[in-house]
Predict the structure of DUF4168 domain-containing protein.
Amino acid sequence: MTRVATRSLAAALTLAFAAAAGQPALAQSDNSGNSGGQSKQDVKTDWSEKKLEQFATAATDVKEVFEEYRPKIKNAENADQANKMQKQASDDAAKAVKSSGLSVQEYNRINQAIQADKGLRDRVMKIIRKQQGQGQGQGQQ
């Protein structure tokens, strides 16, 4: 992968991480009254390699879901249709996260950690580049 393509991928996935964290379906509610917001001191940054690999897979899939739905939502005939498509996109993104082996809560917590810790973000980007390289080597994408 070229340096420019790698930078573009990194920028796109950073945006996907941030966008996905803000999507309603990816924000699990709990009955404790805790909104899930954590201060930077509370963010766990010592995630296992397996969890980071699962996150990398999920983040790539979530990015693809939102890329698929973005033009559909933008071209919706009315606000109700746009809202329905946005909910479907969020539901599909949550399914993608769960199919990676993570819970939505774990995905969101790792996403928060990536926003707070550049070293962790770099580790995830390295995993994503490795996964992308494996997919290309097999004739995918």
Summary: Residues 49-74 form the longest helix (26 residues). Confidence is low (pLDDT under 50) at residues 4-12, 19-25, 27-38.
